[in-house]
Specification:
By secondary structure, this protein is an all-alpha fold. The chain is 72% helix and 0% strand. It has one domain (6-116).
């Protein structure tokens, strides 16, 4: 897992009309899955496909589940865990998924910095 710039990811998502956002969704899911050690969680590609097939309904579950997965990854890596599942679900419900991506990436960046031995 590597640290990603949140600002660059948001700009690329806007400039590419959401195509980079799809990639970001997939790598966020894969990174959180890898860091939490949850082998039962679907891969990023499967999560995207399920979101597409269910017309976004799976995306609501995904947002909630990502809060739990990231909290598990934080505690596994010695970072005080924050369970933002409900926040992610609410933001997804009101159409602010890109804010979710930014918040999730921030948490994953903290894990990446911790693993690299960089002080926050």
């Amino acid at each position: 897992m590597r640290e990603r710039s949140i600002a660059v990811s948001i700009v690329l998502s806007i400039v590419t009309c959401g195509i980079y956002g799809i990639y970001w969704f997939v790598v966020l899911t894969d990174d959180a899955r890898m860091e939490s050690g949850d082998s039962n969680a679907p891969s990023g590609g499967i999560a995207f496909l399920l979101t597409l097939v269910t017309c976004g309904i799976y995306g609501l579950y995904w947002a909630y589940k990502m809060g739990k997965t990231i909290a598990a990854a934080e505690s596994k890596n010695g970072i005080p865990a924050e369970d933002n599942s409900v926040l992610y679900l609410i933001l997804q419900l009101v159409g602010l998924g890109i804010i979710n991506y930014a918040l999730m990436q921030n948490s994953l960046n903290a894990i990446a910095r911790k693993k690299a031995g960089v002080q926050a």
